[in-house]
Amino acid sequence: MPELPEVETVRRGLLPIIGHRIVGCDVRRRDVVRDRT
Q1: DSSP characters for 1-37?
Q2: Spatial distance between the Cα atoms of 25 and 20, rounded to a whole number of angstroms
Q3: How far is 1 from 22, CA to CA, in rounded Å?
Q4: Can you tell me the distance from the alpha carbon of 21 to that of 24, in angstroms, rounded to the nearest whole number?
Q5: CA distances for 14 relative to 1, 7, 8, 20, 30, angstroms
Q6: Is the pLDDT of residue 1 over 70?
Q7: 7-22, pLDDT tens digit by residue?
Q8: Could you tell me how far CA 7 lies from the centroid of its own chain?
């Protein structure tokens, strides 16, 4: 099955957004830990 260009565009658009969300969550957790200690 050939790759659809539309699917590739969606993947390239969503992956960075999901990555930023994950990184943001990690940073928030670290900040909370710093405040507690």
Answers
A1: -PPPHHHHHHHHHHHHHHHHHHHHHHHHHHHHHHHH-
A2: 9
A3: 31
A4: 5
A5: 22, 10, 10, 10, 25
A6: no
A7: 888 878 888 777 777 7
A8: 18
12: its two tokens? 């390239």
- Rg of the chain in Å (alpha carbons): 16
Distance CA 20, CA 16 (A): 6
Distance (Å, rounded) from C-alpha 7 to C-alpha 28? 31
Q: What is the pLDDT of residues 24-34, one digit of tens each?
A: 777 777 777 77
